[in-house]
Amino acid sequence: MGKCLEDGLGWDCSYLSSGSVSTGLSLNSLDGTPSIVTLSETGSLRGYEEVLPGVDIFVCTADPRIEPPIMVINTVLSVMAYNYPSQKLSVYLSDDAGSDLTFNALLEASRFSKLWLPFCRKFNTEPRSPAAYFSSNPQPNDHNPSTPLDWFSVKKAYEDMKNRIETTTRLGRIPEEKRKEHKGFLEWGYGATRQDHPSIVQILIDGRNGKAVDVEGQPLPTLVYLAREKRPQYHHNFKAGSMNSLIRVSSKISNGPIILNVDCDMYNNNSEIVREALCFFMDEEKGHEIAYVQFPQDYNNLTRNDLYGTGMNVIEAVEFPSMDANGGPCFVGSGCFHRRDTLCGMKYSKECERGWKGENNKENREIATVIEESCKVLASCSYEENTQWGKEMGLKYGCAVEDIITGLSIQCRGWKSIYCRPEKDGFLGVAATTLLQSLVQNKRWSEGQFQIFLSRHNPFIYGHKKIPLRLQFSYNRYSMWALNCLATLYYVSVPTLCLLKSIPLFPEISSLWILPFAYVFLAENSYSLGEFLNSAGTIQGWWNEQRAWMYRRTTSYLFAFLDTILKLLGFVELSFVISEKVSDEDVSRRYEQEVMEFGSPSPMFTILATLAMLNLFGFVWGVKRVVMDAQLRALELLAIQLILSGVLVLVNLPLYQGLFFRKDKGAMPTSVTYKSVGLALLASAIALY
Questions:
Q1: How much of the chain is helix, strand and coil, in % rounded to 5?
Q2: 403 an active-site residue?
Q3: pLDDT in tens, 22-61
């Protein structure tokens, strides 16, 4: 507690952080020096909970085929079970597919929550996603005599619910007898599709109703299903449009001054995380300056050596804390607590310093059906016409990374942000289990960042005199990801082609001019390795990440660069690809064994395989030249290029295995093998002759 006071956390955080000790960055990071704060319980919550603000939690899903409803409702149940007053929590599920399958799953979850929430309170379970909890705790804790009975009964109830949801999902429709269980199913009329349906708002648990209680008689959080209206003639603006509809609908129902948004696969892994975030917002000295508190995006299925470099250890452990010291981290789309006013376009001023009481709409006495009907207007396609939504209010439209550009605009309005990385991960999601999933995901990120770089929202222009120069540089580091494709493509192709023709590009190995090249190579890689190991990585994990970065730069970033240019010229339109959250058993097994997954043909694989074959041909040809040169003149001239091609061959070993040696379904498709070998031979022949 003393540390909190020393660092300027004037608000007594002791009552907010009930339970085990946790850590986060102190508010001194606003002044440029991040430091660690310990938030530990030294008192009771009694007498304080009435001043805690309401928290509205947004969970977004878009397609039940690649985001299974059972996974979605596990996330919903986990955030309903935060160690926070239930009457101050409201959970909203935005279903952009408008699927009755997802609604059915949420209805099942609303019933199961009456068992799950008291179970979590009674035994202080962690994590609070039922699927994650029961998979990590296959047997009850025998230390408490009452645990086994409760454990088996709750697990059976969960398994029964899971079977019902998955059976209905496989069937692809809701049985008639099931439709009679809730009036909400009447909203799905004849002819409704994913891209053409009316607004659907259903309050499944009304937290204002005294009868909305669990099996122990304790109040339940409000639970709302939302499918905003979609029509073919209106652009729906992807996740940004979904979030803006949630902001408006929630303002009518609960209007919590704090908003937490999470992706549908990012379940609550730390039940104290709401209280930790509030320690920043409710700080008496600087809390009024905070617009949002961003937590890391971590994953529960990463392999030991992070096969596809998905974890981004260095970004989370080094780069984001650095942004925190430079003025605040960017908003990365999930696991972020927002001040509602800032999302609605409010500019920072000293008058923003005020209390949190009286800002919750749960005193609204309108009956649920009336509220549902009025909220449908707020989620309609036409509501945003001739308004500032998507421009100055809500999340911004017109960019593939709506989160980054929205966070930047909030900071440019004078607000600060905080990066909090507690010892226990706050949120855990599902990482890509195939190479193609990872590349496509990175393509969207880098494309959106490059769009920002080429737009009026370029941090150097938009942020001029609004945010610190060092924060502008921090943003532009990511905005220029796509441009990295040009230099990387040069280094993985031109030196090898010149090697085939015996054209030296670097100083001779005996020349002193080789020292700068050797220094850059050794220093950069040594520093990178040290940084990675210091971020809890492994040597093999670092090697995998180097491969991942090279693959991204030669495919994801290349396509992002080309698509952005074509979009600026008007040849293509903005698109949004949803990351698949499910994979079959064979794919999962190979992923756990850290065997790289190819499987399906893709232009990205053709590029990777062609470059790999080109470097293999160049390396073999270079070795042949050196062996046949009795005077070793070829080695003197071409050593650096030979080393470079050799390193690239080592990096691509998993790809060669997929091309020629593997026979499983995850091997490289035969069509890609033929194309890549043919293209590499053609390029080699042109270079030679």
A1: 50, 10, 40
A2: yes
A3: 333 334 444 443 333 433 333 333 346 778 999 999 999 9
* Dist. CA 471–CA 481, nearest whole Å: 17
Residue 95 is a catalytic residue: no
Whole-number Å distance between alpha carbons of 258 and 281: 9
Alpha helices in 329-430 (DSSP H): 340-343, 368-378, 402-412
Residue 39 near residue 24 (C-beta atoms within 8 A): yes
Instruction: Answer yes or no: are the C-beta atoms of 133 and 127 closer than 8 Å.
Output: yes
**How far apart (Å, rounded) are the C-alpha atoms in residues 155 and 134?**
7
Q: Which of 298, 306, 403, 563 is catalytic?
A: 403
174 φψ region: left (φ > 0), alpha (ψ -120 to 50), beta (else): beta
* H or E segment to which residue 564 belongs: helix 557-568
The active-site residue out of 56, 95, 96, 425 is 96
For the beta sheet containing 298-299, the strands, ordered from the edge strand earlier in sequence to the opposite edge, are 267-268, 427-429, 298-299
What lies within 8 Å, CB to CB, of 378 at 6+ separation is: 245, 248, 249, 252
Report the run of H or E that residue 269 belongs to, with start and end.
none
Among the listed residues 203, 192, 277, the one whose alpha carbon sits nearest the alpha carbon of residue 22: 277
540-593 pLDDT per residue, tens: 999 999 999 999 999 999 999 999 999 998 887 766 666 666 678 899 999 999
Both tokens of residue 165?
A: 């949801």
Name the token pair of 682.
């053609």
Helix (H, G, I), strand (E, B) or coil at 294: strand
Contacts of 550 (CB under 8 A, 6+ apart): 488, 492, 651
